[in-house]
Amino acid sequence: MTMMKRRFRGFFPVIIDVETGGFNPQTDALLEVAAVTLTFDDQGNLHPDAEFHFNIDPFEGANMEPAALEFTGIDPTNPLRFAVAESVGLKELFSEIRCAQKEAECQRSVLVGHNAAFDISFIQAAATRINAKRNPFHPFTCFDTATLSGLALGQTVLAKSCELANIKFDSNEAHSALYDAQKTAELFCYIVNRWKKLGGWPLGD
Hints:
This protein is α/β, with parallel strands linked by helices. Helices cover 39% and strands 22% of the residues. The protein has helices at 3-7, 66-72, 86-103, 116-129, 145-152, 158-164, 177-197, and strands at residues 11-20, 30-40, 46-55, 108-113, 137-144. A 5-stranded mixed β-sheet has the order 3-2-1-4-5, sandwiched between helices.
């Protein structure tokens, strides 16, 4: 049995961050998606592993709120984004995640996000739109680093949680899906490893 399977009860945690054209996953555009997988070292500590990132073309008829675009700094019409259709980006991402999940001997991937309900709602809505047959993610279970940070660090804002965990955080890079996913991955690993160091896992040790 792999350490990943043992540690998370057969779940394969994958950090996800999305950038969008609003707050409604049914009507608002998915514009960016990034993912970071994780791995254990020989000492049983968790670390970020592979990274994936796609700029996404808005689906036909998608709503994009001006305030959301101003917040993220994304120009959906910029050809230098080299954006791909949802069906291309998500199917490739799902395929990579399924391969890593299988290698880790896990049965299902679980989305890890900072305020994860937002990210999982957009991933699942997009998966439905493209009729994805092999979505690796559990439909509703997720690990939320905002909640975990509230427990472990007394803070729920990503930048402030990273600061308390001595993780470098550049606010000028924030709201890029890949950067936020990288920092969320580092934060999740910090919390899991800190819990282990404090004797909280393996249980009974």
